[in-house]
Structures are given as C-alpha cells and as structure tokens.
C-alpha cells in the first residue's frame, strides 16, 4: 500500500478587519460602553475615558470653537474616528480635531468616519495610555499629513506640541498654546485647559 506525503496546512492568518467591520462593532456590551480603534486591520479595544480626560477634552473643544470655528477659520470635532490609511485600514478615535477652511467640506466615509486628514489633532492622555504609545500616535498623525498634534496630559498639566520636522515642544502652566500656520491668532493659556 502506497502512502501519500501530505504537507501540513500553513496556519491561516487572522483576517484583517476593515473600516466597514469597525463600524459594525457594538458600542454597548453587557459590561458597559466600549470604544475601538483599528490598527492596520487589527481591532483595539479602548477603555472609556475618565473624568479628567473628559473635562480636558471638553475645554479643548470649547477653545477650538470659540477661537477658530466662530471666526470662520474651519470646523472642529471631538471624539471622532479618523481614517489615516487603508489596506490595511487604520482608524483612530481622536479626542479633538480641527479642519481648516481650505480643507472643507470634509470628506466622510459611508460608515461615518472622517476621511479628510485634519490640520490639527488633539490626544488627551487617558489612564491606560503610555507616553510611548502617544508619541508613536503623534508620529502616525504627522505621517498622514496632520500639521500639528497636541498631546495633553491632565495629570502633569502639560501640552506637548508635535509638528513635522521639528522637535516636540512641551508647554506648562504659564505658557500659551498656539496653532501657528493652522489657526491664525489662536492663543490659549495652558492653565485654562486644566483649571478647576
């Protein structure tokens, strides 16, 4: 009796998820609300942000609205999914963004995520975020075409500003946050983002 040599099957790679798959994910589980991001087709589960995060995000949104959107310089968003790239898909949940007037109207995917790359992106550090992860995310934003990234740390009361081809600049209480090149005459004292 002859025996046939059978090659073992190669383990199949997990299927990469798409923007459409992400949009179909539930926002509520039995244990509570849930958020996701998509990292090159892999699902990332995010914990809901805490109170300090929410307060800081709210204040940033107000500053963008009152110092930029009301002046007709563009449009802001908070808590918005932004598609940074496709194939494999990368969707991030930005805490706040600003889209300059020159980039409007904003393009939105059929799933409701922002396809226009904003000129300004804000990330507020949550309790589960590492500084290394936020630095990497800032670089991803810059590579996608974002002009300014603000990484805000409520516990340290700092804002680190990232721009293409420049060293990061860390601002503290007593410094003034600007958005040169994106929002003319935008000036907000850093302390205003954190005052009780």
Helix-residue proportion: 10-25%
Percentage of β-strand residues? 25-35%
Domains, number: 1
CATH topology: tt1808, chain A
Please identify, by name, the CATH architecture: Alpha-Beta Complex
- Average pLDDT works out at 91
Name the overall outline: globular
User: What is the β-strand count?
Assistant: 12
* Sequence of strands across the biggest β-sheet: 5-6-7-8-9-10
CATH homology superfamily: tt1808, chain A
Q: What is the CATH domain class?
A: Alpha Beta
Distance separating the two termini: 84 Å
Radius of gyration: 20 Å
Q: Key features?
A:
196 residues; 12 strands; globular; tt1808, chain A; single chain; alpha+beta; two-stranded antiparallel sheet; six-stranded mixed β-sheet
Structure description:
The chain has helices at 19-23, 51-67, 131-144, 190-194; strands at residues 28-29, 32-33, 35-39, 42-46, 74-85, 90-100, 120-124, 148-153, 158-162, 169-171, 176-178, 187-189. It is an alpha+beta fold. The chain has one domain: Alpha-Beta Complex (tt1808, chain A), CATH 3.90.1570.10. The strands form four sheets. It has a six-stranded mixed sheet with strand order 5-6-7-8-9-10. It has a two-stranded antiparallel sheet with strand order 1-2. Strands 3-4 form a two-stranded antiparallel ribbon. The longest helix is centred in the first third of the chain and has 17 residues, at 51-67. The relative contact order is 0.14.
Quick description:
This protein has 196 residues and is an alpha+beta fold. It has helices spanning 19-23, 51-67, 131-144, 190-194; strands spanning 28-29, 32-33, 35-39, 42-46, 74-85, 90-100, 120-124, 148-153, 158-162, 169-171, 176-178, 187-189.
